[in-house]
Amino acid sequence: MNREINIREDVYWVGVNDQETSIFESLWPLPNGVSYNSYLIVDEKVALIDTVKITYHDSFIDKIKKILGNKKVDYLIVNHMEPDHSGSIKALKKEYPEIQIIGNNKTAAFLEGFYGLTDDIKIIKDAEVLKLGKHELKFHLTPMVHWPETMMTFEKSEGILFAGDAFGGFGALQGGIFDDELDIKYYEDEIRRYYTNIVAKYSPMVQKAFEKLADTDIKVIASTHGPVWRSNPDYIIDAYDRLSSYQVEEGVVVVYGSMYGNTKKIAENIARCLAENGIRQIRLYDAARTHLSYLLSDIWRFEGLIIGSCTYNTELFPPVAGLTSALLNRRVKNHKLGIFGTYSWSSAAKDSLLEFAEKAKLDLIEPVFEAKYAPAQDDLKQASQLAQNMAQALKG
Ligand code: FEO
């Protein structure tokens, strides 16, 4: 079965679904796969918007040819050069040698650097318009959502925003392509995980893109990943607005790094005490066993964060160090932070976490404490106090 999939008349989804790649960017787990969305507009001139990962170029070009027959693709609009979207450009050029590639003044260097392509590139400026016939495309430069060359393309007659990575999510499309064909709840967590893993560092740039598009009458959101939002684009616009403006919910993520269970014991005590103090959304994670991808996603969601770590080779336990580094990289905001450390002969975890707290500029909840060897009664008392203070601060 290989049916044509229309977004609107003469506008087609020609993306592919990747259920084979296990880690996106060789970093982020894909238990539910991912889609690479590409779109075809058939008019007096034919325009393709973005391509797909190179692995899928055969089925991608088959889809295009099935729609176009002997007609040619006149334009390839490159909204984004990350190879999950630009990977099939060379294969496409082989099939359609006359194709005119359209990008902005940052795109050309990527095309040459990745693929050795130096000709046939039409450079557009911000707000420039390209007429295909009855369809008109307006280009909006949106740098750093997610790379410097990223832009969005707005189709005026149908109000379709081809948004690049913005408004995207993990999760392959499993039959349903459009928001009105899907169980949106299924995609909710995967959208947040995608955002926090891939886009979150550039949240201020996402907000800038919102400002830029404020007067644009968007009726359909067509991202490079995940569902196409044709019935309720506000759902994904609101979700991205919340995520990129650091809005949080009441709840606490407790993450610990523990070699032999002593740090874990303190973390469990804290989680229990949070529950006794009325916190209903608690996520307790072992940093060595839950992938950073999921930790980031839940931390971005909930206002409270408590990190505990043992000392390992006179430093933070490596999975916890990876987490604090990733949080600093993404400039996490609007959180209340609790920290504690443990050690046996050389204290380091607590001070390293204090250093993280200072750099992250988060609201530090007292007490900050450390336990030597196994936690003593007094350490568990401090743990309870930290949980009580955190619950009070969140409900405050
Ligand atoms: Fe889906 Fe930044 O590429």
Automatic annotation (TrEMBL):
<dbReference type="GO" id="GO:0046872">
    <property type="term" value="F:metal ion binding"/>
</dbReference>
<protein>
    <submittedName>
        <fullName>MBL fold metallo-hydrolase</fullName>
    </submittedName>
</protein>
<dbReference type="InterPro" id="IPR029039">
    <property type="entry name" value="Flavoprotein-like_sf"/>
</dbReference>
<dbReference type="InterPro" id="IPR008254">
    <property type="entry name" value="Flavodoxin/NO_synth"/>
</dbReference>
<comment type="similarity">
    <text>In the N-terminal section; belongs to the zinc metallo-hydrolase group 3 family.</text>
</comment>
<dbReference type="InterPro" id="IPR001279">
    <property type="entry name" value="Metallo-B-lactamas"/>
</dbReference>
<dbReference type="Pfam" id="PF19583">
    <property type="entry name" value="ODP"/>
</dbReference>
<dbReference type="InterPro" id="IPR001226">
    <property type="entry name" value="Flavodoxin_CS"/>
</dbReference>
<dbReference type="GO" id="GO:0016651">
    <property type="term" value="F:oxidoreductase activity, acting on NAD(P)H"/>
</dbReference>
<dbReference type="InterPro" id="IPR036866">
    <property type="entry name" value="RibonucZ/Hydroxyglut_hydro"/>
</dbReference>
<dbReference type="GO" id="GO:0009055">
    <property type="term" value="F:electron transfer activity"/>
</dbReference>
<feature type="domain" description="Metallo-beta-lactamase">
    <location>
        <begin position="35"/>
        <end position="225"/>
    </location>
</feature>
<dbReference type="GO" id="GO:0010181">
    <property type="term" value="F:FMN binding"/>
</dbReference>
<dbReference type="InterPro" id="IPR045761">
    <property type="entry name" value="ODP_dom"/>
</dbReference>
<dbReference type="Pfam" id="PF00258">
    <property type="entry name" value="Flavodoxin_1"/>
</dbReference>
<dbReference type="InterPro" id="IPR016440">
    <property type="entry name" value="Rubredoxin-O_OxRdtase"/>
</dbReference>
